[in-house]
Amino acid sequence: MALGRAHSVAVTGVDGQLVEIEADVGQGLPSVHLVGLPDTTLQESRDRVRAAVANSGEKWPDGRVILALSPATLPKVGSVYDLALAAAVLDAGGSVPAQRLSGTVLLGELALDGRVRRVRGILPAVLTARKAGRSTVVVPECVLMEAGLVDGITILGAATLRELIDWLRGDGELHRPGSVLPPADRPGGDLSEVVGQNEARWALEVAAAGGHHLLLTGPPGIGKTMLAQRLPSLLPPLTETESLEVTAIHSVAGTLSGEHPLITVPPFVAPHHSTSVSAMVGGGTGSARPGAVSRAHRGVLFLDECAEISTKVLEALRTPLEEGEIRIARRDGVARYPARFQLILAANPCPCAPARDVDCICAPLARRRYLGKLSGPLMDRIDIWVQMYGQAAGAFAAQEAESSEVVRARVASARTAAVARWREYGWSTNAEVPGHVLRQRFRLPRESLAPVENALRHGRMSARGADRAIRVAWTMCDLRGGEIPVVQDVLQALNFRQRGAA
After folding, report:
1. Cβ(396)–Cβ(195) under 8 Å?
2. In this structure, is the dihedral angle defined by the CA atoms of residues 491, 493, 495 and 498, taken in order, positive or negative?
3. Are residues 161 and 207 in the same domain?
4. Final residue of a domain: which of 168, 183, 213?
5. Is residue 10 located within the same domain as residue 111?
6. Which residue range(s) make up the domain with 204?
7. What is the 8-class DSSP label of residue 191?
8. Are 455 and 236 in contact (CB under 8 A)?
C-alpha cells in the first residue's frame, strides 16, 4: 500500500477553503475511485487525469487507486483539482518526491495531452492558500498575471503536467509572473460630451460624491444613457483592497482580461432589460456564480429601460441595495458575494415615449402602469430622482461643458471630507451611513430638519426616505465645503425626491 498527498482549494462565492487530496494505491483490479462529494465534472476528472499522466510519459499505478478529497463534507465542484489529483497519484506511486509537494497548492485543469488549462476563481484560491500558510502555488501559465497580484507567496506557472513533474523532481524550473501591465483607460467617455442637461449633470455629480442611487426619466435620445455611462469617469480609483476584492469577483465570474487582470477603476455593468433573476443576482446550476449586482461591486449597475424589466428582477434588488451583499442558497450551503454598488435607473415616461408630453397617445391607465413596475419599496431606496426635458434652441452652440476631470476633482474633495468624518465608524461614503447614526450621533440642527419633519408629517415620505434625504444633504454639504448641512442643503435633497415623484 502506498499513500500520496497534494493540496488544492475549493472556492465557494469569493471564499476559499484548502482541500487535501489523498491518493491510495492498493491491490485489486485496476480502477479509480473518487470520494469526498465530487460533482459530475470532478467525477469525469478520473479519465482526464489518467490520460494526462500517460501522455506525459509517466506510468499510471497498477492496481486500485482511491482518491479522497477532504474535508469530506465539503462539496467539490469543477476541474480545478485535476493538477493536484495527478500529483497525488504520482506521489503515491513513487514517481515524484514529496518534499516540494508538501508545501505547494496546485490549481488547474488537465487536458488529455497533459496541457494545464485555466480555471475560474484563481485569485480567491491564491488568497486562500496564502491565508492557510502555504509557501507556493502552482497555477496554469496563462493566468500567471492574475495569480501574481497576490503578494507574500511564491507564484509559479506550469504550461504542462510534464513541466510540473520535472519541477517536483528538481530537474526544471516553472514560469514566474512578469510585471503587471498598466491598467486600461477609464471606460464610458467624458462628461464634456453631454450637451446641456445641467440639472441632470449636477445630480450625477452629487450621486458620485456620496455614492447615491439615481433615477433618470425622460423621452428617448435625451441623454440618460450617456450620463449614466459617464458616472465611472467621476468616481475615484479603487483602493488596493477594493481592487483585489473586485478582481476576485470577476475571477470567479471568468470575465478578467488576460493582459489587464487587476481592476483598478469602478466597474460599469449594464445588463439587458430582458435579463433573468439568476443573471441579475447570481445563481445557475452547480456552484452559484456571481450575477450583475456582484460584478458591479464598488462600481455602477445601470438598468436602462428599467420599466421593461421583469418585476421579479427589480424586486430582487431590494436586499443587496440595503445590505450590500447577496446570499444565494443551494442544497449544499450558501454562497455569499459582496454587492455594494451604485444603482442608476433610466426609463421613458410612458410606452409611446414622445419627445413632448403633449404628443403622448397613451391612455392614463397605461401611463401609470408603465412606471408602476418600480414599486414603492424599491423607489424608497433611490436617493435622487431627476426628470429630464428636451433642450432649448441654441444648446448645441453653447460653450463646452465641464470635463470629467474637473468634476472628478470636486467629487474627490467631497469624498475625502466624508472619509474623514466616517473613518472611525468604518464607512467611506455618505450613502453607507445607517439612519440611526444620522438621527442620533450626527443629528442636524432643528431648523435644518424642519423640511424633513414637515414632509413626514404630511405623509409625503417614509422614514427610510427621510434618512436618504439626509444622506444626500450631507453630500451637498461636502460638495460646497461646509461643516454641517444647512436648511438649503436639505431642501435641495428633498427637491430631488419630490420632483421625481411629481
Report:
1. yes
2. negative
3. no
4. 168
5. yes
6. 191-390+401-414
7. G
8. no
**Secondary structure of residue 230 in the 3-state scheme:** coil
CA distances from 210 to 304, 402, 468 (A): 22, 19, 11
Please report which helix (H) or strand (E) contains residue 330, including its range. strand 325-330
Q: In the listed set 382, 414, 446, which residue is the last one of a domain according to the structure? A: 414
Does residue 182 register a pLDDT over 60?
no
Rounded Cα distance between 65 and 86, Å, is: 11
Number of folded domains in the chain? 3
Residue 91 lies in a domain: yes
DSSP β-bridge partners for residue 301: 269, 343
Q: Where are the alpha helices (DSSP H) in 185-239?
A: 198-210, 224-229
Q: Report DSSP state, residue 445.
A: P
Question: pTM of whole model > 0.85?
Answer: yes
Considering the chain, what is the average pLDDT of its residues?
90
pLDDT in tens, 453-498: 999 998 888 898 999 999 999 999 999 999 999 999 999 999 998 6
Tens of pLDDT, residues 314-359: 999 999 998 899 988 876 678 889 999 999 999 988 888 777 766 7
Contact 157, 139 (CB under 8 A): yes
Range scoring the smallest mean pLDDT among 140-149, 219-228, 399-408: 399-408
Rounded distance between C-alpha atoms, residue 16 and residue 10, angstroms: 5
Indicate the angle between helix axes 463-480 and 404-422, nearest 10 degrees.
110
C-alpha distances (whole Å) from 72 to each of 21, 45, 68, 115 are: 10, 18, 8, 28
Residues 410 and 460 in one domain: no
pLDDT of the residue at 121? 93
State whether 157 and 58 are in the same domain.
yes
Q: Are 124 and 248 a contacting pair, CB within 8 Å?
A: yes
Q: Are residues 127 and 61 in the same domain?
A: yes
185 falls within a domain: no
Beta bridge partners of 6: 21
Q: Kindly state whether residues 443 and 296 are assigned to the same domain.
A: no
Please state whether the peptide bond connecting residue 71 to the residue before it is cis, i.e. omega within 30 degrees of 0: yes
- Domain harbouring 346, CATH code: 3.40.50.300
**What whole-number percentage of the chain has pLDDT above 70?**
94
**396 has a pLDDT exceeding 70:** no
Report if residue 142 sits inside a domain.
yes
Q: What is the DSSP letter of 299?
A: S
Residue 222: name the closest of 81, 132, 398, 348 by CA. 348
